[in-house]
Amino acid sequence: MHETSDAIGRPDGTAQGPLIRGASIVALIAAVVIPLVGCDSGAESFFGKPGDSACPRPQIPTGVAPQFNTQQLEIRVLRRRGFTGDFFSQLELARRYEGVKAADKNLEDSVEAAVWYAVALSNGDGYAPISAYGRRSPQGEQKAISRYDDCRAVERNIAYKSLDRLLSQMSSEEQEKVRSRVIYILSTQGASGYRTLSRMHDNFFGPFGEPSDNPQAGLARGKPYKPGTPQVLNLFPRNDVDAYLYNFLAVQTGDVSAYVMLKDFERSSPERAAVGQYVEAKAKRWIPPYEFYPPESPSSGVPHSDESDQIGDAQQAALGRIRELPFIHIGESLFYLRAATRAATTEDALYPQEIQDFQARIGRPQTGVLTPIEKVRVIQYAAVNGSPKAQLVLAVMYAEGVGVPRDYARAFHWFAEADRQGSAEAKYAMSTYFSLGVAGVADQDKAKAVVYQIDSALSGFKPSVGRLQQVLAQVSRPSRPTPRDRDYDR
């Protein structure tokens, strides 16, 4: 070791005094520390005890000059990022809807705030270590060296407590709405979302699918003498049937890791393996709680937009076929929704203001021109609002993969909804074609008659017999529930 001098030399060879030397050191520390505070004031910063610093927020680009609808533009950006899995955007959405800041009081919506806190807590980006494990605690546990890991832990602790507070003030109906919206958002993420939902219902993981030894999950569970966040723990009840169901749905997307998880789940106990046959039958008829995000009009005037339109190959191919749908069906749906004054047969026959009115209802940019996904939304919105004609059209769209990826469970669901709404064509389909059972369609004449009957109502939109046979094979009802079915049917 070299000895250090008590003085720092001047150019003239004399020594600086301790006061000047101390000032230089302070300036050097400030030069290093202050930038860190601006970009990453983690839980082990110089400015507080461990665990009291949150992560910095990313900027939200909404344009150079302030606009009258800046708040709405920011919410759209945050929702787009939130639907695609951005952890910090999900947290920011939750706080905006919670009305933490005075400027956000008009957005205050406890259900929507709880939804985004729950989605953020389920996001693996909120707890997966960012950096290599570089140090050990006195107990021998490995800890990440990044302050980014620490500040995210703080964020999740705050989110757990905020979510518990919000849920404790809700009715059971409002809590059910939170649960359904979270399931919908995660289901739009495909295999990764289904795997997350599976872990959220599995006792072997934390309340939101974290590793069981995750510190924030442990604090949420609490101890007998120190309760954690009980309302949060009750939001997604743990049970093997739902854990298996979402694993199975993930496997159906072709995801290899989901298949590995499913097999591990089956091997974990004989009871879990025993529910497999029942769950597989249930999965064939499972659909998300919503057709698309609830198109509500909050008092803030900023609609809850559905930003799940992340165009994959299947979605792109389906949207490319939307031109096969005669525009009269879109026109009739707009008329049903009272967005248009008449059932237009062509898009040119609509006024731009009529299109803008519909776009505003579902939180889309008001361009006055319908995009392919908005044409799909018109049919979906009318179907959700009870139009039997739109429900029939949507059923066939799902059976054929026109505008939406082919989904036999949803096709069957919308045929059934149209039947309940009094559609003669859907009733004919349900009472003849779909009632023939799981063995398939023995009487091809009956099958063709159903197709012709539907075709006459759809004005040139022709479903194929083969596709409708696949609907039957995939989602037909079991002939008689078994005792086990009754035990597990929830």
Written account of the structure:
This protein has 490 residues and is an all-alpha fold. The protein has two domains: 70-130 and 145-283, no CATH class; 317-475, no CATH class. It has 23 helices and four strands. Helix 4 packs antiparallel against helix 5 (147-168), helix 4 packs across helix 6 and helix 20 runs antiparallel to helix 21.
Beta fraction: under 5%
Order of helix and strand elements from N to C terminus: HHHHEEHHHHEEHHHHHHHHHHHHHHH
- The side-by-side strand order for the widest beta sheet comes to 1-2
Total helical segments: 23
Report Rg: 28 Å
**Helix coverage percent of residues?**
40-55%
Shape: globular
Average pLDDT taken over every residue: 80
* Residue runs with pLDDT of under 50 for 5 or more positions: 1-51, 437-441, 478-490
- How many domains, as an integer? 2
Number of β-strand runs = 4
Q: Give the class from helix and strand content and strand pairing.
A: mainly alpha
Termini gap: 73 Å
Note the main sheet: 2 strands, antiparallel
